[in-house]
């Protein structure tokens, strides 16, 4: 007997303001505090190595609307005005503890050159010896800011004390929620109390990243990208900030993802919703951007499409941007740097995965989702595999050296919003990764090289319990042929990381039919919340997720499991 | 300003004339160009395939279900072409002759002139405006130029009106739903204007003549209408074809060549050379594989479908719903399967897969679910995401082209809290003008991202209800993506701008105003209408003067959607006013409500609303003051509002759409006559391939009866006046079965016909397939 509950109280607080409410979030009218709960039954994740136990569920407080943004009491559901984008809570974690660093699987040290190496215009100015170790801070004080961009900053009354007393190796977390940006100390016994909360006027921070290279106990470089296109460089210890791409002077499209260039103190890449990747320097001033180069150059060589509107090799490097690449006129959903720091995997709303050699400003290859847009992407710790997740409810494993699809992973009931490898449970042959999605689920996946090399038909027959081999229809054989034309299996699949500079002439790969692609089932699937999960992170001692409405959940790893380090 | 306000409120007090001859009144006389017109600039010469026509459709009171489906079908290119070309295309000359009378150009500046006139009259003496046929309450309404009601009215008054006439004889057919559909499509295609408003009166007349259940002015289910329309088109076409064949035989060859000569060549030429074009577009085949767990024998049976009805889960995707549709299902306990092999009821495992993929995949999201504890249909507000592109996972191993790529091209959106009321609009991707919103008379270009606003998780009760996917290729998709204009970029640029100059002056003001709509709306329209539908609305508007200080007036404009300008149809004009409120109130109390109780409650509520309105006004004033103040202070102040705002929760939210359900009548008024053929015929199609009928009592309730239909059928058996009483006497568990029984009477008979239905091409209907699991819970 199945009784349907009455309609859920979906909008407990009817008053909501434009972006937040319009995107389905209940928005309070007053400033509230974060809360932490320790669910009684927990939400254990059972896998082969043991049980991950839910430690706590920290709910970030959604800030009230800015007073200038009066509540929309009765939203017109058909209003055709485009809404500003917003997104669920994402976390940036940072720890100074060297033991907490994820294990590396690269055979040799990273040898990638610096971005823009060889352009004398980019050579760093000589730094006086005494300043060499001193980190440069942004200029403006965010607390005393009179900017119309920053609304206000709420500092916890004891934050100074908490900062000085804390375990220096503890983990800091930075989280965006709605128009707020919170700084949390996850190692604190009162971790639900923020250290600082920055409230922006209207824009929402959509993405943020901490520079791993420059972090010290007294300095953290954070960049964050907003729904308005503006980028904030923020140093939380000194509460200083700077605005880059102010008022969208370089690109006024929302920033969908932002990352520090690996190995760079000053440079970071931001992807914008209009299909543009821009490299900025935190130290440089903005300048009105005018495209420098036409895109005609890339066509003549038969390269894959990439409009370089400003090259890193440009001699004009006095101001931002350093480089400006247009990949497509579709939204870039996310991107990820390869562990060897030479390549960039970019996923777009048009369903394409584009592999770039960003140092050489080239697109190496383009793959396509089964259908629908791609949302998230990550690299395996050894750089051999790329996993994407998208609107086809699938995760897709791609082999980077072989340049082909390896398997599709079926298990989500809705779009996949984030994917990450668990480097502590990966080794040379087996890989563990996790994914979260709009279906409120957390899924864990294992795949091994051996398994994936199994013959396809056999593998599929076993996973899908087929009783007969697929009857080859005419369509299938056509696809076969089209496929073999574009089939360029690499022979150097053992040469793990680098695939230096060999430009692929092939334009794009056809979408592999379902009948010829291995299908991987998850090892664990669990509904972990009541709202879509939008971020996933693996730490040495825990798994963390965060959700659309601000639930940050932490699972302890099984105590008995042997964690490799 | 003050004077204006007081005048406005006074005039609103007199705005009780049900006269709908009102011309819209606008203050600015600058000629305006609508977003659609802007979009259509520089389109070159008019094409003859109809792909560059963008017509709204007049709503005759709750006919939005029809409008939205017709629009979707019109922009289903192969369907439109088939309709136009079957049995032949009307020659352009005769079409133009017909259009000369059908298409009525209006003065594009009509509303401007009317406004000017009204402004003048207003300046002199407001009451005189009434004599001029301009309801004096008009001046305040057009303040909200962005309200859909206003835009619809302007569209109706300025755009060319296209009224279709029965042209069936020229097709060599007798008048039917198909011919009236063809009338509409042909006149739109043949029209010299790119934009306009269709009056589908003739189509509705035919529909109502043939189908009793559409005769009321009630809200209908868009999906049911789609299914009925497609079935009806199939039936009409096939009947005509057999008739033609018959006459052809009967008539001497010469004569038939004359009378039908046009028909034969044209059918051969452009598209539909058979009568099966609807099947070729929408029809797919499902295979249900049942594996008897005793003897392990797998029995298969094919069934055709015109659309798929999928059950929904919270936080899922269409992909996942489709996969669930094909998930394995155990037939056990009361649901056992009759195995021919073992000869008896056995436990079995069953799954449904798609064997033949349709070219157009119509997906019905089952948002209306029967709840047993409430004994009625309830709308599910689950968040169900749908991608722009789709492939089907649930195909059989031997399906042809199992990886077929589909693209989303139309979405029918249901707005409202329940199944018996609300509003439908369609969002459609046109061939070369991007996505457009078709909201009755109103046609507006929208951003591509707009399509994603109807997953079901946003406020405003708007959810996608029927999705249309059509086959495409990856190459076509990539080509389109490359061409896709940076609509989103411009959109974001705008928002960026808005944020930058976020000078709290203008936008907040607007917001505040809109906030004050609430009370006036709540109090005003509903009470008088509910009790005495014809009563003037004096009471509600009389409240306006209660304001101590003039409230921001413009606010009220969207509240009361301007009367829809249907001069000859006064009745529907009332509907927009009550619409939304009722919808919500009903949702809250629908179950128990009797008229008396309702009235009592309403009285109380009225009072409350008045109080609330005062509060609200005060609140609004505060808000305005606050804007001028400092940030911090404002934040604190907002705390004070918690209670007030919280209180609003109970009050209906007002949304901008207008034509909602008029009454809150229950579905029981549907006559079961209408239902019968569908039920029995669905049995037909189901049992066709199986020679030995499965025990129906067990088999059918499990999946034959789409869940959605259950209550309707059962209710339809009750007397229309007392829908609840008989129902409540039966135990909920028995309802589907017991009510099903009487209807199933004709089934065996129909089954006999069914054996030959393929050959005879009889007019049986294809039902849409529903996911069946839920029904388990019923039995």
Automatic annotation (TrEMBL), chain A:
Coiled coil: none
SUPFAM superfamilies, sorted: WD40 repeat-like
Record's keyword terms, sorted: Repeat, Transcription, Transcription regulation, Ubl conjugation pathway, WD repeat
Statement: the UniProt record of this protein carries the keyword Transcription regulation: yes
GO biological process: carbon catabolite repression of transcription
Cellular component terms (Gene Ontology): cell division site; cell tip; nucleus
Disordered: region residues: 459-511
WD repeats by residue range: 367-408
Functional summary from the UniProt entry: Component of the regulatory network controlling carbon source utilization through ubiquitination and deubiquitination involving creA, creB, creC, creD and acrB. Required to prevent the proteolysis of the CreB deubiquitinating enzyme in the absence of carbon catabolite repression. CreB deubiquitinating enzyme stabilized in a complex with the CreC leads to the expression of genes such as those in the proline and quinate pathways.
Subunit structure: Interacts with creB.
PANTHER family per UniProt: AT02583P, WD REPEAT PROTEIN
Family: Belongs to the WD repeat creC family.
Protein name, as recorded: Uncharacterized protein
UniProtKB/TrEMBL annotation, chain B:
The family this protein is said to belong to: Belongs to the peptidase C19 family.
Protein's name according to its UniProt entry: Ubiquitin carboxyl-terminal hydrolase
Example GO molecular function: cysteine-type deubiquitinase activity
Any single GO CC term annotated in Swiss-Prot or TrEMBL for this entry: nucleus
Subunit structure: Interacts with creA, creC and qutD.
Key words, A-Z: Coiled coil, Hydrolase, Protease, Thiol protease, Ubl conjugation pathway
EC code(s) of this entry: 3.4.19.12
Compositionally biased region (Polar residues): 264-274, 679-688
Comp. bias intervals (Basic and acidic residues): 141-150, 577-642, 699-715, 750-761
Matches recorded under Gene3D superfamilies: Cysteine proteinases (3.90.70.10)
Protein's job: Ubiquitin thioesterase component of the regulatory network controlling carbon source utilization through ubiquitination and deubiquitination involving creA, creB, creC, creD and acrB. Deubiquitinates the creA catabolic repressor and the quinate permease qutD. Also plays a role in response to carbon starvation and the control of extracellular proteases activity.
Positions of the UniProt region annotated as Disordered: 1-27, 119-150, 247-274, 485-779
PROSITE patterns linked to this entry: USP_1, USP_2, USP_3
Catalytic activity: Thiol-dependent hydrolysis of ester, thioester, amide, peptide and isopeptide bonds formed by the C-terminal Gly of ubiquitin (a 76-residue protein attached to proteins as an intracellular targeting signal)
Keyword Ubl conjugation: no
PANTHER family (UniProt xref): RE52890P, UBIQUITIN CARBOXYL-TERMINAL HYDROLASE
Domain USP per the UniProt entry, residue ranges: 55-472
One Gene Ontology term from the biological process aspect of the record: proteolysis
Bias (Pro residues): 550-570
InterPro entries per record: Papain-like_cys_pep_sf (IPR038765), Peptidase_C19 (IPR050164), Peptidase_C19_UCH (IPR001394), USP (IPR028889), USP_CS (IPR018200)
Superkingdom as given in the UniProt entry: Eukaryota
Biased composition, class Low complexity, residue ranges: 8-24, 119-129, 716-732
């Amino acid at each position: 007997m199945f009784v349907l509950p009455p309609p859920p109280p979906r909008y407990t607080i009817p008053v909501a303001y434009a972006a937040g409410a319009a995107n389905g979030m209940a928005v309070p009218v007053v400033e509230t505090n974060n809360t932490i709960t320790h669910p009684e039954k927990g939400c254990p994740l059972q896998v082969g190595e043991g049980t991950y136990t839910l430690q706590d569920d920290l709910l970030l407080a959604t800030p009230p609307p800015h007073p200038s943004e009066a509540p929309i009491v009765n939203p017109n559901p058909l209003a055709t005005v485009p809404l500003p984008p917003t997104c669920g809570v994402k976390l940036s974690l940072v720890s100074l503890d060297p033991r907490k660093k994820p294990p590396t699987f690269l055979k040799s040290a990273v040898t990638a050159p610096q971005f823009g190496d060889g352009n004398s215009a980019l050579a760093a100015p000589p730094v006086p010896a005494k300043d060499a170790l001193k980190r440069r801070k942004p200029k403006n004080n965010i607390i005393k800011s009179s900017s119309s961009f920053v609304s206000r900053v709420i500092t916890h009354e004891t934050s100074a004390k908490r900062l000085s007393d804390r375990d220096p190796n503890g983990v800091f977390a930075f989280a965006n929620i709605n128009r707020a940006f919170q700084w949390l100390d996850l190692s604190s016994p009162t971790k639900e109390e923020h250290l600082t909360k920055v409230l922006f006027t209207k824009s929402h921070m959509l993405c943020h990243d901490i520079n791993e290279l420059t972090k010290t106990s007294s300095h953290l470089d954070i960049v964050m990208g907003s729904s308005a296109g503006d980028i904030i460089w923020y140093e939380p210890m000194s509460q200083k900030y700077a605005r880059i791409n102010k008022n969208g002077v370089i690109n006024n499209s929302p920033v969908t993802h932002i990352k520090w260039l690996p190995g760079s103190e000053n440079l970071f890449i931001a992807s914008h919703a209009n299909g543009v990747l821009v490299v900025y320097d935190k130290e440089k001033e903005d300048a009105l951007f005018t495209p420098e180069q036409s895109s005609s150059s890339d066509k003549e060589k038969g390269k894959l499409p990439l409009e370089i509107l400003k090259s890193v090799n440009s001699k004009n490097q006095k101001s931002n941007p350093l480089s400006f690449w247009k990949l497509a006129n579709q939204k870039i959903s996310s991107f990820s740097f390869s562990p060897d720091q030479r390549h960039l995997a970019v996923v777009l709303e048009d369903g394409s995965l584009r592999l770039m050699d960003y140092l050489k400003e080239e697109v190496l290859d383009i793959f396509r989702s089964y259908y629908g847009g791609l949302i998230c992407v990550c690299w395996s710790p050894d750089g051999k595999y790329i996993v994407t997740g998208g609107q086809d409810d699938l995760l897709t494993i791609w082999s980077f050296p072989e340049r082909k699809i390896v398997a599709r992973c079926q298990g989500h009931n809705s779009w996949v919003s984030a994917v990450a490898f668990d480097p502590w449970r990966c080794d040379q042959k087996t890989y563990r990764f996790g994914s979260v999605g709009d279906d409120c689920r957390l899924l864990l996946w294992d795949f091994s090289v051996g398994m994936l090399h199994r013959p396809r038909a056999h593998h599929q027959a076993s996973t899908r319990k087929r009783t007969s081999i697929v009857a080859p229809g005419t369509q299938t054989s056509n696809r076969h042929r089209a496929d073999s034309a574009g089939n360029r299996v690499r022979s150097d699949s053992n040469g793990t990381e680098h695939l230096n500079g060999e430009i692929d002439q092939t334009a794009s790969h056809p979408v592999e039919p379902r009948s010829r692609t291995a299908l991987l089932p998850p090892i664990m699937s669990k509904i972990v919340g009541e709202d879509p999960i939008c971020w996933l992170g693996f730490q040495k001692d825990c798994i963390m997720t965060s959700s659309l409405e601000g639930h940050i959940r932490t699972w302890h790893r099984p105590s008995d499991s042997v964690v490799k380090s | 300003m003050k004077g204006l306000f007081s005048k406005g409120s006074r005039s609103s007090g007199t705005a009780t004339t049900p006269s709908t001859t009102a011309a819209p009144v606008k203050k600015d006389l600058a000629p305006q160009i609508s977003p659609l017109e802007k979009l259509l600039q520089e389109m070159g010469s008019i094409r003859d395939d109809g792909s560059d026509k963008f017509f709204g459709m007049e709503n005759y009171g709750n006919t939005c279900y029809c409008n939205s489906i017709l629009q979707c079908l019109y922009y289903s290119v192969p369907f439109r072409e088939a309709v136009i070309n079957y049995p032949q295309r009307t020659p352009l000359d005769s079409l133009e002759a017909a259009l000369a009378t059908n298409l009525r150009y209006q003065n594009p500046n009509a509303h401007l002139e009317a406004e000017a006139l009204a402004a003048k009259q207003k300046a002199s003496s407001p009451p005189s405006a009434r004599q001029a046929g301009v309801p004096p309450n008009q001046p305040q309404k057009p303040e909200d130029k962005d309200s859909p009601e206003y835009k619809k009215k302007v569209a109706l008054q300025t755009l060319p009106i296209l009224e279709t006439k029965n042209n069936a004889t020229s097709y060599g057919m007798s008048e039917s739903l198909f011919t009236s559909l063809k009338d509409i499509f042909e006149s739109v295609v043949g029209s010299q204007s790119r934009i306009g408003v269709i009056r589908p009166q003739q189509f509705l007349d035919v529909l109502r003549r043939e189908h009793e259940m559409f005769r009321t002015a009630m809200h209908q289910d868009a999906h049911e209408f789609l299914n009925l329309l497609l079935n009806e088109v199939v039936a009409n076409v096939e009947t005509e074809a057999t008739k033609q064949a018959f006459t052809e035989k009967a008539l001497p060859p010469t004569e038939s060549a004359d009378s039908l000569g046009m028909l034969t060549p044209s059918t051969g030429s452009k598209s539909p050379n058979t009568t099966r074009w609807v099947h070729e577009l929408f029809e797919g085949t499902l295979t249900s594989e049942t594996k008897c767990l005793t003897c392990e024998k797998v029995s298969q049976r094919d069934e055709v479908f015109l659309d798929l009805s999928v059950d929904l889960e919270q936080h899922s995707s269409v992909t996942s719903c489709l996969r669930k549709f094909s998930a394995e299902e155990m037939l056990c306990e009361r649901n056992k399967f009759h195995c021919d092999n073992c000869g008896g009821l056995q436990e079995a495992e069953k799954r449904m897969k798609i064997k033949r993929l349709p070219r157009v995949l119509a997906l019905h999201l089952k948002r209306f679910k029967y709840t047993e504890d409430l004994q009625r249909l309830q709308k599910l507000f689950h968040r169900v995401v749908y991608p722009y592109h789709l492939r089907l996972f649930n195909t059989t191993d031997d399906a042809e082209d199992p990886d077929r790529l589909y693209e989303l091209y139309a979405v029918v959106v249901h707005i409202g809290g329940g199944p018996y009321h609300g509003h439908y609009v369609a969002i459609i991707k046109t061939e070369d003008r991007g996505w457009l919103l078709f909201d009755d008379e109103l046609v507006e270009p929208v951003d591509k991202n707009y399509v994603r606003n109807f997953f079901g998780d946003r406020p405003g009760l708007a959810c996608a209800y029927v999705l249309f996917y059509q086959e495409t290729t990856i190459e076509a998709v990539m080509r389109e993506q490359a061409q896709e204009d940076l609509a989103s970029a411009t959109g974001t640029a705008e928002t960026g701008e808005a944020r930058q100059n976020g000078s709290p002056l203008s936008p907040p003001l607007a917001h505040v105003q809109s906030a004050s709509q609430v009370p006036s709306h709540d109090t005003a329209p509903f009470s008088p209408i509910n009790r005495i539908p014809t009563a003037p609305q004096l009471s509600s508007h009389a409240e306006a003067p209660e304001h101590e200080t003039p409230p921001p007036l413009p606010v009220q404009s969207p509240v009361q959607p301007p009367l829809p300008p249907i001069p000859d149809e006064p009745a529907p004009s009332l509907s927009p006013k009550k619409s939304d409120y009722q919808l919500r109130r009903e949702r809250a109390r629908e179950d128990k409500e009797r008229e008396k109780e309702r009235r009592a409650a309403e009285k109380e509520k009225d009072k409350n609303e008045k109080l609330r309105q005062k509060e609200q006004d005060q609140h609004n004033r505060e808000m305005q003051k606050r804007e001028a103040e400092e940030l911090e202070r404002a934040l604190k102040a907002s705390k004070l509002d918690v209670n007030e705002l919280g209180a609003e929760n109970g009050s209906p939210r007002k949304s901008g759409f207008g034509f909602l359900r008029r009454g809150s009548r229950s579905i029981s008024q549907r006559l079961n006559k209408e239902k019968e053929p569908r039920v029995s015929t669905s049995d037909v199609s189901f049992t066709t391939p199986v020679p030995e009928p499965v025990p129906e009592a067990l088999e059918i309730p499990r999946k034959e009866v789409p869940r959605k239909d259950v209550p309707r059928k059962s209710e339809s058996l009750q007397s229309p006046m007392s829908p609840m009483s008989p129902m409540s006497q039966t135990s909920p568990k028995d309802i589907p079965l017991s009510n099903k029984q009487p209807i199933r009477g004709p089934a065996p008979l129909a089954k006999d016909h069914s054996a030959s239905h393929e050959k005879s091409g009889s007019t049986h209907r294809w039902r849409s397939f529903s996911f069946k699991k839920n029904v388990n819970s019923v039995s």
